[in-house]
Amino acid sequence: MIVVLLGPPGAGKGTQGERVAAALGVPKIATGDVLRAAVKAGTPLGLEAKGYMDRGDLVPDAVILGIMKQALAAPEQARGVVLDGVVRTVPQAEGLSHVLAELGKPLDLVMLFTIAEEALVARLSGRTVCDACQTPFTGRTPGETHAECTHAPKGTLVRRKDDEPAAIHNRMAVYEAQTAPVIAWYRAHGAHIAEIDAFGALDDVTARALKAVGKG
Ligand SMILES: [Zn+2]
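Above: query sequence and zinc ion SMILES. Below: predicted holo structure tokens.
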């Protein structure tokens, strides 16, 4: 089964994707992992990608898709794969669809995690990080001293800039602008899209996600 994950940052897509992949008995792969593996292995496309990265440039979609095609053709992916962060734009959706057609592997499901911005703000506002040792926490108050801190002096729990409401609002706006056309593209091409409500306890969201792949 080949599943593409879509969803805003902070919706728990990565964690849920791991659980769905485990239930299906297939790997979950993300663009970053596949890219790093190709660079490390020194494949021709990996070296090409490294050239862009060394210059501080974005690796073009064509190079990433080439690397993704090789990864998808590998025996580990024979039973399917859960793709996380592989499709963010319409050209990437088109590119992936060509690659899958060439490999004779149809896309089975687009799993779209949805969450309201207010819910994301509420969830992420509970996250803090120690400003000395960078240990992350949930459910602790900003300003609190990190009592177990290994640094001297002990650090203070702070909220990440990324987790501030204004930053979340910006990320959501970027996500909506990029993703709405991707969803429209998949709809127009007859893809099976399962919308998963990502609001709620981790296990409840997992239950909804597993139901969508027939493992609930
Ligand atoms: Zn600390």
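The CA atoms of residues 90 and 184 lie 9 Å apart.
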